[in-house]
Amino acid sequence: MILVATMWKIKQSLMNHFPSDPRKGQIGSIELNLWLAQMSGVSVMRLRQNSSDIKIFIFLYTALITILVTFVYTACEFYDLALNWYDLNILTQNSCISLTHLAGLAKIINALYKLKDIQKVLEKLKYGLRTYAISKEQRQTFLDGELENKLLLTVYVAIVATTGLLGMFVLFLNPVKMAGKTFPYRAVVPSWVPFPLQLLYMSLSVLVFAMQIVAIDYLNINLLNQLRYQLNILNLAFDKLSFEEEQEKSRASDSPIFGKHSRRLNAIIEHHCLLKEVCQDIESIFSVSILLQFFTSLIIFAMTGFQATVQSDASNEAILIYFYCGCICCELFLYCCFGNAVTEQSKTLPIRSFNSSWYDYDGRYRKSLLVFLTNAQQPFVFTAGSFMDLSLPSFLGILSKSYSYIALLRQLYGR
């Protein structure tokens, strides 16, 4: 009962503070996502409406976080990596978190560089909602998806934040053993910085950087989900068309149906073309950064798996490694799961359109439907740098290859 009550409160809070309204093109999950990005120090001011005073404060805040956390702390980690490259145990400990931060830094830079393109994608999605989500069922489908999106982001943040806070607890519990010497706090902070400040800087940097990565990752996943919802809205448009045709039949109208249904089909085709543009835009914005994420995830899985085998099962370090590996697995799974979901959703379009009693319509309608069927035959596919699809088989393939690398590292370590 307590869990149900808590989830209800979270649901109501998300709906009240970040409302969604398809009639206005308002996407609350995107607003929540961008708010998280700003709170963690990623400057996405172009994508949010703020007053001039708030913009100045956000600019100074994000600049400070970006310099101290995103760049300086990453440099401290790589300096430690350069000092200890010869020790396999230390190398794998450092590489786990350093590669994560390197991939995160690349994704943040990519998102900031292509912020204008992301803004155009959001404008297209909002236009699609305002223009084509016209029925009650279509709007409810979008609102249900928005609730799913917000709750999923909340759970993702909770998982990563729990891991970061657990790391902070272990760090302050064993500061001498952990600070700069053990995963995930292997970094060389200047010695002139007081030790308590070093502890605070390390713990906050790892936690804040994790939130930045979550915000950027989920922005991509959120856009995939928005595309999936609008594909479902397209399917519902064909259902509505079939329902209206059945109503026409019940009125004993035996003549071919002209006019209104052809305009509805033209609107569906326009919507589909808009979504194809959105798909291509998302692919061009995030494809390369996702490839880097997949490559580093393969190495990180191998490194963390190796660390889990060499650490004592009861040690704090081993517990942190298990939590961290779970976060990386969750990150990669979300990409592959929702990329796969968009592809599968797009494959349903030709089936739903062909089942729409097209044989009862006039020749103009049938020609337009043929154009749609031709375009819809090609599913929406997202890739990691055109190297592999975002799909569940790709996720399983990365896990399989990681296991092979773990075995290799174990052999090297045992010599």
From TrEMBL:
<protein>
    <recommendedName>
        <fullName>Odorant receptor</fullName>
    </recommendedName>
</protein>
<dbReference type="GO" id="GO:0005549">
    <property type="term" value="F:odorant binding"/>
</dbReference>
<keyword id="KW-0812">Transmembrane</keyword>
<keyword id="KW-0552">Olfaction</keyword>
<keyword id="KW-0716">Sensory transduction</keyword>
<keyword id="KW-0472">Membrane</keyword>
<feature type="transmembrane region" description="Helical">
    <location>
        <begin position="95"/>
        <end position="113"/>
    </location>
</feature>
<keyword id="KW-1133">Transmembrane helix</keyword>
<feature type="transmembrane region" description="Helical">
    <location>
        <begin position="151"/>
        <end position="173"/>
    </location>
</feature>
<feature type="transmembrane region" description="Helical">
    <location>
        <begin position="56"/>
        <end position="75"/>
    </location>
</feature>
<keyword id="KW-0807">Transducer</keyword>
<feature type="transmembrane region" description="Helical">
    <location>
        <begin position="319"/>
        <end position="342"/>
    </location>
</feature>
<keyword id="KW-0675">Receptor</keyword>
<dbReference type="InterPro" id="IPR004117">
    <property type="entry name" value="7tm6_olfct_rcpt"/>
</dbReference>
<dbReference type="GO" id="GO:0007165">
    <property type="term" value="P:signal transduction"/>
</dbReference>
<feature type="transmembrane region" description="Helical">
    <location>
        <begin position="199"/>
        <end position="219"/>
    </location>
</feature>
<feature type="transmembrane region" description="Helical">
    <location>
        <begin position="285"/>
        <end position="307"/>
    </location>
</feature>
<dbReference type="GO" id="GO:0005886">
    <property type="term" value="C:plasma membrane"/>
</dbReference>
<dbReference type="GO" id="GO:0004984">
    <property type="term" value="F:olfactory receptor activity"/>
</dbReference>
<dbReference type="Pfam" id="PF02949">
    <property type="entry name" value="7tm_6"/>
</dbReference>
<comment type="similarity">
    <text>Belongs to the insect chemoreceptor superfamily. Heteromeric odorant receptor channel (TC 1.A.69) family.</text>
</comment>
<keyword id="KW-1003">Cell membrane</keyword>
